[in-house]
Description:
Helix 5 runs parallel beside helix 7, helix 7 crosses helix 8 and helix 11 runs parallel beside helix 13 (206-218). By secondary structure, the chain is an all-alpha fold. Helices cover 72% and strands 0% of the residues.
Amino acid sequence: xxxxxxxxxxxxxxxxxxxxxxxxxxxxxxxxxxxxxxxxxxxxxxxxxxxxxxxxxxxxxxxxxxxxxxxxxxxxxxxxxxxxxxxxxxxxxxxxxxxxxxxxxxxxxxxxxxxxxxxxxxxxxxxxxxxxxxxxxxxxxxxxxxxxxxxxxxxxxxxxxxxxxxxxxxxxxxxxxxxxxxxxxxxxxxxxxxxxxxxxxxxxxxxxxxxxxxxxxxxxxxxxxxxxxxxxxxxxxxxxxxxxxxxxxxxxx
Length: 253
């Protein structure tokens, strides 16, 4: 079906979208995203109205875009255009921002960072949104998007939110940092994780401290890190301490 859509003209894809039975429409939308031909994306652009379509159908489109294994710049361009300046249901907006981060990350993996205007626009959209976010849930969504994008230049931003934010923000920022490969877990990242683990700046939730310990253990821990993590485990609940001990044992093995 996807191969057929790749050969089809825009008018044919658009007609298929408009005539598909309601129960088949999500399948056709997902297939049109997977096809990623110029015609199928142009048809989706004409068909999808983010101000009118059922929320479930819009989320289907965004999920299909986010999980696309090798997305194109055109797919990111379509996603950006559909989200830009629209009054959206909160769930659609959240899915859209997180999907945008995923698309940016995958395009950068294809060495297209800095080469495609859509990628730069996507990065700036996420960063500008994070700078302007006032409410905690909104900040968390943008941090999740940065976690999907996995851009090394955003690590200082994630570190700042990890150390200074409220619990939900700290959790989202540390979770985003956990997605970076070991080569990006610098001494500065480790120092921040140590401060969170040992509560040097303020009191942190146990889940945040546990995640900070995981980053240290998963990225060439020093002997002193291992000793301090074991000492910190004494302050934690039995279940959390046991989990940390197993992580240390796996690291030693």
